[in-house]
Amino acid sequence: MDKREIRARDVVADIRAGIDDVGLMAKYRLSSRGLDRLFGKLVAAGLISRTEWTARKTGHEETVELVDINGALPEKSGARRPHPTASRRPFSGKVEDVDILDYVQWLLIDGKQTVLIVLPYGEDPCRLFLDSGKVVHAVAGQAEGEEAFYRMALYTSGEFVHMPWTEPEDVTIESEPTSLILEAARRRDEAEIGMLSVKG
User: Fold this and answer.
1) Is residue 59 within 8 Å of residue 29, measured between CB atoms?
2) Potential cystine with 118: which of 62, 126, 199, 200 (Cβ 3.0-4.6 Å)?
3) 167 and 119, same structural domain?
4) Which of 92, 85, 31, 83 is nearest to 60 (CA)?
5) pLDDT in tens, 13-66
6) Burial level of 118, CB count in 10 A (0-12/13-18/19+)?
């Protein structure tokens, strides 16, 4: 498999221009692991400082503060520690082994308004614009609309990240979410059956 060449000076220019990690991953077709490796190489080559990399990482991650962890919990079993409402935040984290169609379906049921970036290994990234229970736009490489959504459903592995909601350039998907998901699942089943028959 040929290695993709990424010009270090282009990446450094993008970093210094303020492009965030999601933007870098999409532009250079990298997973988060690949982006970490790239940063490591840039630090090793002296093109960015370790401080610059560390500041960037801590700037993009949510942290959990463990205050008085030894002895600060209530003595009685079952008693809950009060949560300061002023610092309430939703959970965030990393989840492994998620079926991408199941995850999109959950987002649709939950009515999320978000831009989901799907970063498959070795394929074009896909941007899904989810607006209050509907997929309104999708882009994957040169494909747009439903074809981009169906292409995303065929991705077998990768990572995904959320970006804040922005209006899409165009509304390219009008189908109801249920029919969209069912058609994507049907196409994926057909592709898997086709692969089995080729191997068999």
Assistant:
1) no
2) 126
3) yes
4) 92
5) 888 887 877 778 778 877 767 777 788 888 888 888 877 776 665 444 433 333
6) buried
Q: In terms of DSSP H, where are the helices of the chain? A: 8-16, 21-28, 32-44, 50-60, 100-110, 145-153, 177-199
- 135 DSSP β-pair partners: 130
Query: Three-class SS of residue 50?
Result: helix
pTM above 0.70, yes or no: no
Tell me: do 80 and 120 sit in the same domain.
Answer: no
Identify the residue whose tokens are 């804040």.
164
Give the other-Cβ count within 10 Å of 60's Cβ: 10
Query: How many whole angstroms from its chain centre is CA 9?
Result: 25
If one counts every other C-beta atom within 10 angstroms of the C-beta of residue 155, the result is: 21
Q: Which domain holds residue 124?
A: 100-199
The dihedral built from the CA positions of residue 18, 119, 32 and 91, taken in this order, carries a sign that is positive
Helix (H, G, I), strand (E, B), or coil: what is residue 105?
helix
